[in-house]
Amino acid sequence: MINSRIYLFIIILLVLGRPVEGWSQSKDSSDGRFGNYFLFNMNTTEKQHMVRQPVYFPISDTAIYQIFERINDRNAASLTATSPASAIILGVKLNPSLKHYFSATVGSISKEYYSFLIQDSSEAILVAMGINSSNYKDFRYHVVQNDSVELVPWSPVTDLRKDYGAKEPFALIGKFNHPGKWIVVEVYNVKDYRTREGVVFDWRTDLKPKLEQIIAEVPGNYFNILHPSVNRQYATRFNKITGAPDDMRLPADSIRNLIFQFKKSGTLLSAAYLISKTDKTTDTSKLGLIDNHGYFTLDGDQIREAGKYEIIFQRQTLKASWEEDQLLRIPFEVIATPSNSAIAKKLLISILITIIALLISFWIYRRTMRKHLKKMELQKEMATLKLNSIKSQLNPHFIFNALSSIQNLMNKQAIPEANHYLNKFALLTRSTLESSAQDMISLEQEWAIADNYLRMEQLRFGFHYDLQMDGTLNSSLIEVPPLLLQPLIENAVKHGIAAKKEGTIFVSAKPSGKDLVLYITDNGKGFDANMDQTGFGIRLSKERLELLNTIYADKPFSMQILSDNNGTIVTITLKNWL
Question: Is the pTM for the entire model greater than 0.85?
Answer without folding.
Answer: no
